[in-house]
Amino acid sequence: MTDIEVTRRCSIATRNQRLAAVRAFAGFVGEHSPVRIEWSGQIRSIPFKKTDQAVVPYLEKAEIDHLLAAPDRRTEQGRRDYALLLFLYNTGARASEAVGVSRWRT
């Protein structure tokens, strides 16, 4: 892990992501190979480093207004894009949550 930070000059967040992958692999190996349980435990005992939490940015009202004004609402695609943006804004939904919404059928 030191090599990742020092030699490759990766951030602490990158180091932690790679450590998470290695720890998951070590857990898998430890479960399926009793001979490697000690090695797995050593790997899984490497602690994560603390890092600052990224501030989640948000858009100001004027920025939202500009974003909502962008789609051409005279076209079908523009109306769809406007409706989707308005839905995301009004509900606070993530894009992945919006994808999961299905069309209401009557």
Automatic annotation (TrEMBL):
<keyword id="KW-0233">DNA recombination</keyword>
<protein>
    <recommendedName>
        <fullName>Tyr recombinase domain-containing protein</fullName>
    </recommendedName>
</protein>
<dbReference type="InterPro" id="IPR011010">
    <property type="entry name" value="DNA_brk_join_enz"/>
</dbReference>
<feature type="domain" description="Tyr recombinase">
    <location>
        <begin position="54"/>
        <end position="106"/>
    </location>
</feature>
<dbReference type="InterPro" id="IPR013762">
    <property type="entry name" value="Integrase-like_cat_sf"/>
</dbReference>
<dbReference type="InterPro" id="IPR002104">
    <property type="entry name" value="Integrase_catalytic"/>
</dbReference>
